Amino acid sequence: MRFALFLSSLLFYSFATNATRPIVSLYAADTLHASPFFIGILVSAYALFPMLFAMSIGKLLDRYGARVVAILGGCGMLLSLLTPVFQPSLISILFSQLFAGFCNICLIISYQKTVGNRVGDRDNNVMWLTLIFSFAEFLGPLMSGFTYQFLGFRWTLIISALSVLLGIIIGSVISKDHWKGGVAEYKSKKTNFMESLGLLKSANVRKVLLLSAVILYTKDLLVAYFPVYGNSIGLSASMIGLILSCASEWRSLFDFVNLG
To answer: Are residues 162 and 43 in contact, defined by beta-carbon separation less than 8 angstroms?
Structure first.
């Protein structure tokens, strides 16, 4: 039960991420009349900082611990969601995507390290972690499609921001014992960006990065460009969200069967 409470904080974070990404491209194209080229920039902006700093974030995790990095990542994500609420423009959305991508990778690495090093059945723990991500991929677009259609862009972001706020609160108040798997491993050594890039000398690291890039490329094509295409052929935002949710439903069911 306590582990479920811990994972619920991740669910709130992941829900907000998956809820906002489809409507960002939809709003940019439909309301702000962004070109396909600029939408491509928005999609790339989300992945820019994770690509550059993922290894450095791992070192920060070793230095400060997963709890600190996760809470800071959650606060940053909250800021990235609220910025377009007060100033909905292409520039503010671009900033939001840049910052949200960086904060999201902080959260993902923090929870992956904590859950992966948790005492107990590691396979079962990781499976629960995967299920949380899959469940968020199902719920996020489903909710945002309806809220975007009936309440608008700003309220969709506000609801997502409230979800992030709940994640921050839960992650902050639960016992530090839940974060034992992600405790700091050293205090004195500082992070070095060039040293992190040195890991690319490993062939196995390069293969993993390439495989991850291919997987994320295909996923982002669906999440970012399908809403624009769907809107161009007359699909409502709620229908677009429903279709995106159905696309992720099979993964959720597969993970649930594996848990059983």
So the answer is: no
User: What would the two tokens of residue 23 be?
Assistant: 């409507």
Is the pLDDT assigned to residue 107 strictly greater than 50? yes
CA atoms 152, 158, 164, 169: torsion sign? negative
For 142, phi then psi, to 5°, come to -60, -45
Structure tokens at 195: 């040293």
% pLDDT > 70, the chain: 80
**Residue 185 pLDDT > 90:** no
End-to-end CA distance of the chain: 17
Binning pLDDT at 50, 70 and 90, where does residue 188 land? very low
77/148 Cα distance (integer angstroms): 20
Q: What is the DSSP string of 140-179?
A: HHHHHHHHHHHT-HHHHHHHHHHHHHHHHHHHHHS-GGGG
